[in-house]
Amino acid sequence: MNKIDLxxxxxxxxxxxxxxxxxxSMLINSVYNIVDQIFIGQxxxxxxxxxxxxxxPLVIVFNAFAGLIxxxxxxxxxxxxxxxxxxxxAKGVGQAIVLTIxxxxxxxxxxxxxxxxxxxxxxxxxxxxxxxxxxxxxxCIGAPFMIIYSALSNIIRADGAPKYSxxxxxxxxxxxxxLDPIFIxxxxxxxxxxAIATVIGQFVSFLISIIYIKKFKSIKLKKESLKIxxxxxxxxxxxxxxxxxxxxxxxxxxFMNNMMTKLGATSKYGADIPLSxxxxxxxxxxxxxxxxxxxxxxxxxxxxxxxxxxxxxxxxEILKKILIINFIIGxxxxxxxxxxxxxxxGIFIKADDPxxxxxxxxxxxxxxxxxxxxxLNAFEMTGSISIQSLGKVKKATALSFIRQIILxxxxxxxxxIVLNKGLLGMVYAGCISxxxxxxxxxxxxxxxxxxxxxxxxxxxxxxxxxxxxxxxxHIVITISREYASGGRYVGKLLADKLGINFxxxxxxxxxxxxxxxxxxxxxxxxxxxxxxxxxxxxxxxxSKVIKKLAKNESCVIVGxxxxxxxxxxxxxxxxxxxxxxxxxxxxxxxxxxLDKNKAPKIISKINKEREKHYKFYTNRNWKxxxxxxxxxxxxxxxxxxxxxxxxxxxx
Length: 651
Prior knowledge:
It is a single chain. The protein has helices spanning 11-43, 46-82, 86-113, 115-121, 129-141, 143-158, 162-186, 190-212, 231-238, 240-264, 272-308, 312-339, 341-346, 356-370, 377-389, 393-418, 422-454, 487-498, 506-515, 519-528, 535-552, 562-565, 581-592, 599-618, 639-650; strands at 476-481, 501-503, 555-558, 572-578, 630-633. It is mainly alpha-helical. The longest helix has 37 residues, at 46-82.
């Protein structure tokens, strides 16, 4: 990784280096589900396939919790290591491991006990019920193993051991593949055999992941690291987006299962065949999704780095390449679905199965209608991840929700139930949703692509800071201030009175140098108070700059959590400045040009953003006055006299 330059290396080379491991890892996860489906289909038949489909929402729940804790802990590990806070990094990992063990056991026990009710909620039919119950309860026994190794795989990758994480997943998958036919055909265990093989594979992956705990390279876990406290909520917050994504998939899967059984019951296919077919085709579709997402997620750090560094033409080139690659993947899979539906479905069912012909007929109908335009989904998936890489989180989230939630569910209800088209209306809802989503995605991606041409982050002029001749005792003054309190001006006057340097916007230039990001890009984030995937990188860069300044010179530093960053320094005076509401409004109108009616709302919003930012990076309350040495209402003396008061206090 040290030899890779995201801003200069050949883009094709970078995509291969980043996307291929990501694609492989995601394909491994798909294999687990598909292998069970194939062997159970051949050994048990339609009802067995339907049973695994009914239990799949439970697997999504397990993955959601694993992602919530694992992705959060991995992100926290990277951030704290970047800040050189190894104890806090170890604490985050230790807490995550303990919480994962507790939650995984609870989920396994609760789901085992509640299994009869859960499978009915997930769309189970009377015929499928005994198979789903048997399969599901064994899966619940393996839930702790699955959740723990899934969460740890993310943390292990963040620790700099992606190969170990991949081997852990591969070994479990291979064991599952070997044991499936043995338990299903040799021991004649049916769906239970498939579940047992899966749990054994998961247990082996679990053991490999547990062994790594003593091998962490970047941190050392101690007993203190394992105590859970309120800091765990910050860690979980970093993994929330992953959990929300899984919850979206869960909602869609439960909805589709119930619609297939309800509408299928009134058709010639019955309730079981549509449920079974939807399950097996969805599992095949997961291979396509894994490839597209693997390419897109692999490209994410490349896009984010170059966007942050202001390499707009390079971002456009990367975006164009991954769209072309994923569109080709989509077209290939679309052609396979359209021309070979019977061959695909035939993998999952025996030729002598009584429901063979109806199974094949409905599988063909699904491939020719529901998945008719599936290749166009590549634009939605690629667009969502790419837009997120540009820091447009809300826009990216909206795009990812469009097909599954906003379009597919309402259109399915409209055609299938309201217009009374039954199962036929349901299957055509898929291609209609894909077509509409493609147009929306094309428009959103196009607007972002065009906007890249409008932004100009190049040729930034550096702001120069005069090194003033200060002869007094080394002192650093950090100023935290409410918006429109006059705090920045107080800081500038104070620096002039003391004859030391003043740093506010000047820190942006220095942070840009430290991080490799464009100064204008950092300015844009700073002014709009919007969160992006580069926030941590900016904070780490600003922290390093602030520490260097504090070490090398006396100065005044405004904002940017400087009081927290320098909390262990003895020669630091930490000041908090605030003002009355009316005076803040008058100052904002007079000096910032705000509309008097809108000013209170704008001031409140900016102060809330500052409070939220401070809390996120310090885990302390911005207005907790225990954090500061001086707390001053600027209105009590005015801006000039406040600066003079602080100057006299220091002298």
